[in-house]
Amino acid sequence: MKMFFQYNWQVRDEWMEWCKQLPPEELLRKRTGGAGTILYTLFHIADVEYSWLRGVQGKSDVQVTFEAYKTLEKVKELSDACRVELRDFIENWSDEREDEPVKVEWDNEIHTKGELLRHVIAHEIHHMGQLSIWARELGITPVSANVIGRGLTGS
After folding, report:
1. Is the dihedral of CA 7, 22, 83, 124 positive or negative?
2. N or C: which terminus of the chain carries fewer CB neighbours within 10 A?
């Protein structure tokens, strides 16, 4: 699982870099499908990851609003700040915690920690696919989704 978090973080950074070629109005333009805009999608990915992983750790959710992060630079800052806080948790993840039950404050169900980590991984990959579709609609090559050749080991 560590490798897929590393993968998602690496690809997210590449998307942030990719976005620099677009004017701000293009990042905020309403699109069909997905989370609605390119910039909001990147914000949403970071926000959801942060919320679920804080919940898995038994911490309360931190509410952030997109209105406070409506530039690429601010979304990148949010993503980086959340990652700094989450990195130690991910790097020290042990499969022994896989089946530990957890209940987060916004969901009445009890899940396992491993299930929620996989949910976060899949959520980001899903949204990266949407960004790829929008990139192609703009006539721009999307960020590669390839795991091969990224130097990721999971350790």
Report:
1. negative
2. C
